[in-house]
């Protein structure tokens, strides 16, 4: 029994179908919107164009408040990722400033007391928007914007959950819902009152590939990108899972034939 359970769990992990880490399911929020993401199917893959557009949305909108601590610029070139070339990723890194080490004089801050910075390189991780938690809370009315590296995996139906939140602004709160000052009404957020103001607007970004940047399109793209940051090796794992399943099927067939042959030989013996 225990061995069978372990085999079942291992197969689920290989296929990328293991039970995710769930946060406590809310009781005062609307059900997640019905939205299709191709990567969620057992054989699904990430849409490269959507990943690149999602990176743009994260960079131009989300990065002002949310960190992405587990992703380095070099990861943008990884197989199964957004598909940026090394030259493109290097250019994206160079356009970002990161904290520099001591200069030749051993200084780490300039005359104004600000940390010295330099253009990022491929080996650098995405820099956080705030130097520390206190600075983040001060800039956001006491709320701490979460790191988004694994965020899609920390919620039940993570992709649909995040998509619902991002596209859930604009309604007036009903009489029974009290929205404190500094909060914003979003019926897809637990309790209905969220600290994050509406992040996406129609044509809030200009996509290089000419795709119309509706709120729904931006949400779909950035959720796809965040799903990749949470599971950058998903496609590799699914390919391995299919190979394992095919091997097990073939192996079972060989064992079946061997069993039939041994049984037949045994039946012929006097």
Give a description of the structure.
It is a single chain. This protein is mainly alpha-helical. It has a domain at 1-16 and 236-270. It contains 7 helices and 4 strands. It has helices spanning 2-15, 48-60, 86-94, 133-139, 158-166, 215-230, 234-268; strands at residues 97-99, 117-119, 184-185, 193-194. The strands form 2 sheets. It has a two-stranded antiparallel ribbon. Strand 3 (184-185) and strand 4 form a beta hairpin. The protein starts with a helix and ends with a helix. Mean pLDDT is 88; it is low at 1-26.
The pLDDT mean sits at 88
- Treating each run of at least 4 consecutive H or I residues as one helix, how many helices? 7
The fraction of residues in strands falls at under 5%
Largest sheet: 2 strands, antiparallel
Using the alpha-carbon principal axes, give the shape.
extended
User: What's the count of strands?
Assistant: 4
Oligomer: single chain
Into which percent range does the helicity of residues fall? Answer: 25-40%
- Based on CA atoms alone, the radius of gyration comes out at 24 Å
Q: H/E order of the elements?
A: HHHEEHHEEHH
Q: State the secondary-structure class.
A: mainly alpha
Question: How would you write the strand order of the largest sheet?
Answer: 1-2
> Distance N terminus to C terminus?
38 Å
Low-confidence stretches: 1-26
């Amino acid at each position: 029994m225990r061995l069978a359970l372990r085999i079942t769990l291992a197969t689920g992990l290989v296929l990328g179908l293991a039970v995710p880490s769930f946060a406590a399911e809310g009781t005062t929020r609307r059900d997640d919107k019905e939205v299709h993401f191709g990567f969620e199917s057992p054989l699904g893959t990430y849409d490269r164009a959507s990943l690149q557009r999602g990176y743009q949305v994260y960079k131009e909108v989300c990065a002002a408040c949310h960190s992405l601590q587990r992703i380095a610029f070099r990861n943008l070139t990884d197989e199964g990722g957004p598909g940026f070339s090394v030259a493109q990723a290097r250019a994206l890194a160079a356009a970002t400033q990161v904290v520099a080490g001591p200069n030749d004089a051993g200084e780490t801050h300039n005359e104004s007391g600000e940390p010295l910075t330099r253009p990022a390189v491929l080996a650098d991780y995405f820099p956080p928007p705030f130097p520390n938690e206190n600075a983040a809370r001060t800039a956001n009315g006491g709320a701490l914007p979460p790191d988004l590296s694994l965020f899609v995996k920390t919620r039940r139906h993570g992709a649909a959950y995040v998509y619902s939140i991002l596209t859930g602004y604009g309604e007036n709160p009903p009489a029974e819902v009290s929205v404190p000052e500094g909060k914003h009404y979003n019926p897809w957020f637990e309790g209905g009152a969220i600290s994050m103001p509406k992040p996406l607007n129609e044509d809030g970004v200009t996509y290089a590939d000419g795709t119309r940047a509706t709120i729904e399109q931006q949400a779909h793209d950035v959720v796809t990108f965040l799903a990749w940051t949470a599971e950058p090796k998903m496609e590799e794992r699914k390919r391995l899972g299919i190979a394992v399943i095919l091997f097990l099927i073939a192996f079972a067939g060989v064992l079946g034939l061997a069993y039939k042959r041994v049984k037949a030989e045994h039946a012929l013996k006097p």
